[in-house]
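Fold this complex.
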Amino acid sequence: MALSPRISTQRNPAGTEAGANVPINRAPLPWLANGLPWASIMAMSLVTFSPVIASAPVIPPLAFMTLLAWRMLRPSFLPVWAGLPLGAWDDMFSGQPFGSAIVLWSAAMLAMDVIDERYLWRSFVQDWLVAVVLVSGYLLLQSGLAGLAAGYPLPLTVGPQWLLAMVLFPVVNKAVAMVDRVRLLPLRRL
Amino acid sequence: MARSRDLRPGYSRRAQYGIFTGYVVAIVGVVAGLVVLGVSLIHPEAFSFLRSAGSEIAAPVGEASATARNSGRGLLATIGAYFDAGHQNLEFTREIAAARADAVTMRAVQEENRRLKALLGIVDPAAPPVVAARLIGSTAASARRYAVLDAGSGHGVHEGQPVRAAGGLVGRVVETSPDTARVLLISDADNVVPVRRASDGLPGFVQGSANGKIAIRLLTMGTNPLHTGDIFVTSGSGGIYPPGIPVAIVSVPQRDGAEGRLAADPAATDYVVVLPVYKAPAVAAMADSLKAAGPPPKDDN
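Structure:
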């Protein structure tokens, strides 16, 4: 839980311009460095307030994908219990029965831990495959739970959402990497 | 990228306990989530206060995006209008001529209607709408179909009130907070609306199917008299929705009933109107009698 190693291991990302000419008396802002991942995932939960008033599930689970992307980019940043608070926040807006995201996000964090343990060195494609598996399971279980809550077996309508999620995952990954650069901007004067 | 070996933090007891506690909390999270999920499946209203608080917090975001939606659509429409201006001009001129004639007829019919009603002593219970508001969000990533309205109990919005747009019915209010309300859209599978065909009063009901389309079922058995383009309006039975609001248009007739599309696509509405419950005393009496009678017997079909 120490603040400094988390920042110091991530300073000066190899060979980037940002890292090349940073004065030695600068460091990232602690609140930005520690808060931005949480804030970005929580902001993605607010996607339900986007301009699209949908009459079908069309938007991929962006908040969950952002969580996975952060977990893959910075494996030790988010604590393993992060699914509990973040999932509760997502449940407030998603329209799913309350608790579904708490369960599924916590389970996903534990699953990522197992995957880390088993496949230590992973390439981008393998990360993508992991995301495919986790997001597919997430979408299926979520629509199952929604059907349970509606008391009516919902037809499987996650198809378009699923395809979009698969295609968008690298984009989310890239966006998270960009946010990570912002997170570590050396703005604080020591 | 390989994970750093931070799971073996050396001899520091504090760090070891920290990691252990992390896993305990994560597993407790799963278990607590399951419990909460069970509660909210049995009592869907159990956590409505949290959802209400959430939408209160996020309402400004929704307001901004609702404005963006309206102006964005306006912009696209403006650009599109340049492409077929001449063609449209001709069409509109023709339409206006037809509409003028219709308007005169309409006025005469209205006058006659008013006169006949007065003759029969019918008082038209056209209650004024509760409030006009904007849809500021929807559950676009979920299989359930809810939308968030930017008016709440502070504006007189209550549970059960129907919500309509200019084009037709949108849904009904299911949860309210002081400044926001949650609307169950008619495309949700949980929302069943009694309807009749506008042309001849053929009764039926409409149920959402969560994929943007809705299912139209008829109450009568036998041959299917539906055709593509038939318009269904609310029938007023059930007491919640006032009669005569367009709900669905038949798109694909099927063996029993039809697949329809919404008369008012929530994505294309800017303002919606919250209406008072059509026959509030009747609805309340119905709920009371249901409560007194207990749950209906389960029939397996």
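Helices of chain A lie at 3-8, 17-20, 30-45, 62-73, 83-94, 100-118, 124-150, 159-183.
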